Please model this.
Amino acid sequence: MSAAETVLEVRSLTVDLPEGADRRHAVADVSFELHRNEILCLVGESGSGKSVTSRAIMGLLAHGVRASSGEILFRGEDLLRATPKRMRELRGSRISMIFQEPMTALNPLKRVGDQVDEVIAVHTGTPKAKRIERIVELFDAVQLPEPRRLLRSFPHQLSGGQRQRAMIAMALALEPAILIADEPTTALDVTTQAQILALIHRIQGERHMGVLFITHDFGVVSEIADRVAVMQSGKIVETGSAPQVLGAPRHPYTRSLIAAIPSLVPKERKRAADAPALLSAIALEKSYRSGGSLLGGKDHRVVHAAKRIDLTVHRGETLGLVGESGSGKSTVARCIARLAEADGGRILLGDVDLRPLSRRELRPYRRRIQMVFQDPYGSLNPRRTVGQLIAEGPMVHGMREREAMAKASSLLELVGMDPRAVGRYPHEFSGGQRQRIGIARALALDPEVLVADEPVSALDVSIQAQVLKLLADIRDRLHLTMLFITHDLRVAAQVCDTIAVMRYGEIVEHGATAEVFRNPQNAYTRELLAAVPGKELGMATGIDRGGAEASA
Model:
C-alpha cells in the first residue's frame, strides 16, 4: 500500500440549499482527492462551503440540504449512494470527524468515558473490560492527564483543550482511514491550539491516516498542511502543495486571505507623552467559588480570577489585556465596566472611584464606559430592530425617540453600514455586520472608554481585518480610550499601544507593545509568542497587505 493511495475522491459534488437561501448551491462542482498519509487543508471563510462538504462526506447534511449531483468515493465506494445502514457502519469506524465545538458535540449528561465507550461498543463485540482499557490507552495517547479519573468526568468538568482531546480520542477509537477535523482549534487559545495541532500531526504520522483539516486560518495551514484547497462561495478556486499556495498564491482570493492575517510586527502609533490617566484599576480583586453541592456541601474551591490587579489606561491609549482562557482578563474587564462586582480594590474613572457607587449613583458614569462583547449575536436582542438596539441607550438617558433613531442611522453609517438597516433584525446580518452593530450601539452614548472583550475572535480573518481597521479608525476619529481584551497576539500587535499579559489572575508582564514583543521578559509571554501559528506569515508574506486588506 503506497503513501500516495487515494482514500477519498470527491468528484463534481454539488449540494443544494433550501429555497429562499442567499444562493442556490452551498457547494458547486467541487472536486478533490485525499491521499493516505497526508493532511489536506480545506480553507475558506464562513459560508464558503467547506463544512457542508465535510458533512456531505459523513452523510450528515442538515434537513433541506441535499447533494444533487457528483460522487464521494471512499476507496471506490460512492457514499452518496450508500444506505443509511452502510453509512452508520462507516461513520466512526472508517471515517471519523472532530467537530468545531466539543462542548456541543459531547453529551453534557453522559460521562466522557461512556461516550467514547459507546463508539467502540456499537462497532465491535469487545468485552467491557477491554473497552475500558482501550479508552485509557486512547486518553493517554492524546495526552489527557489522569485518564482513569477523566473516564468518570462529565464534559463541563474538562477544560476546552481537554474536551477537544477527548473528541480526538473518540474519533481515533477504531483507527479510521480518514479523519475529518472541522475547525478543531478555532475556539482554543494559542498555546492549547498549538498543542492540539501538534497532537493531530503526530497521530496522523503514526497511523498514516488521510486527514481532511477544515479551517479559515492560514496560520494553522502553515503549521499542519501537506496540500491546500481554497474554497470561495461554494467553489474551489485554488489547490496545490502548502509551500506553493502559501508562498506563491495564484488566486486573488487566496492572496487576500493570507494578506488579511494580522502581522506580528506591532504598529507604531504616536500618543501624547503627557496624556492624563483616564481609567485605572488599583489592587482589583475578584474570586469565584466552584464545586460544592446543591445541599450545601463544603467541597468547594476558590478561583482567584483577579489578584490585586493594577492597570492604568491613559487618554487616547489602547491597552491590550492578553492571556489564555481562564487567565482572568474578561473578569477584569467586566469588573472595570461594573458588569461584575469586584471583591476589593478601586476602579477610577478620572478621579471618581466607581466601585463603591450604588446602581443609581453609577448611572451618570455608565455612558462614559461602554462595552463591545465577544459574541455579536448573543449580545443583541433578536426581537428588536437594529435601530431600536442602538437608540435604546440614548433614550434611557433622556433623548427623544426621533433624535435617538436619527443618531442610530448616523452611527450605522459611521461603522460602514447602510443607515437604512435601522429597520432590520440582527439575524438578517452576517457575523461581521453584527459586530459593527455592536460597536455602533456601544458608541451611541458617546463614551470616553471602549472596553472590547475579544471583539474579533469569532470572525473570519478578512472580516476580522475590516473590524480591526474600523476600531482603529473610530478610536482615532473620536479620540477614544480602549481596553482591548484578546488571546490573539497578532490582533494585539495591530491594535494595542501597551500590553498587559495575564496568567492565573495575575499580570506577569506589562509594557509598550513593541518592547514586549521584541524583548519579552516573562517566560509565559515568550511561550505565548512561540505558540502563534504561522509566525512567518505574520512577519512577511511577499504580498501587498494594504491592497489585499482594501479589497477584503
Observations:
- The chain has a mean pLDDT of 88.
